[in-house]
Input
Amino acid sequence: MSGSEKKSMKTRDRGLYPLLLSVAAVVLALVLSMGVSFASDTVPPADAVKASSGGQVPGNWSGNLSDAEIWRQIRRGVQGTVSIPDKKAAVLVQSDGDAMRAIRNGYVSRYGIWVPGAMIGLLALFYLFRGRIAIEGGPSDKTIERFNVLERFVHWLTASSFIVLALTGLNLMFGRYFMPALIGKDAFATFTHYGKLSHHFVAFSFMVGLTLMFLMWVKDNIPSRVDMEWMFQAGGLLSKDKHPPSERFNAGQKLIFWFVIVAGLSMTFTGLILVFPFALTPLGEFVSVIWNFGIGTPGELTPLQVSQIALIWHGIVALAFIAVIIAHIYIGTAGMEGAIDAVGTGQVDLNWAKQHHNLWVEQQTGEKVRHPAE
Amino acid sequence: MGEAWKSFWMGAIAMAVIAIVAGVVLSSANPDSSETFSSSSVRL
Output
């Protein structure tokens, strides 16, 4: 393009500006005049403004409620009516969801991960302090059946279910923070989708295992006076010289048993609410009643609110559950010689049994047990 | 399969079987999202 052509275009451009400005001014004037006209038609009478109170707009000039009040109610989560099958659509804005998501993705996930983390730290310290608890007197050439095949089967049914649930659950809560960087966003999305389905379905395996475990072992986990002595001596875990008496299950195992039953029931209860949020009304009503420290009333919470409370509680109990099971796995494997055989072959070394469950061995053999190290 | 791990595998297989049955039952019982969010079958 030559210099004279550029100059000519600049001249033309300058000539267009006044024209564009004129058009814009005309359009603006038209819009303003329409707005003034509209406003003058809709301004309420002065006496109506004077008489307004309590959010009600007198004169019914814009319906019974003002727009601001309608939107305020919608923002608070008021429920309307819809004719489609998805009744949740009757709530346009479920504001409690904001708070619950902030708690779950904030406090619960930020501080909750420290619960299993702290347990791992404590176990590491315990291992440094105590080392692996050995069979005192060494292994004998005799074994005794600790758990029969049904008991071992139920243990592993529950344990394998728990591991799948824990891993898929941890992915749901924490996976977003590091998994996309490791395997990519698409793979993470696919993994999480199938992980969530597995979480739902394997939960039923866990429920079956939990029920069988309770039926099998509840009679051996009733607290007794012997447990007090075991507790006072910390189970002899802190000293090699102390060997408190113990029945088939010691006080520590009984505590874990009852924790598993109570936490497992709690996880089952909240999990069912989450899988069937609009179907299991009685469970939701129960949550409504125990809400507000037991002073709630049935129907106080909507199904969505119940689901959100269940989600928070599910996450908190799960993290505590995982921490306790980490300790259980530690003491059953790396922390104690010979313990894993109880759920492996079911046959444990006789000296191990005498050391850790002397009263049970007496019951099984009918002989007075002397500690193997004595 | 070692004797020590026999009960483990039995438990793990049972877990998978129960989960598959639960998955089939749940999937057949729950309406899919196209039905849930559809406005074609309104119930007034």
Q: What stands out?
A: Confidence is low (pLDDT under 50) at residues 36-42 of chain A.
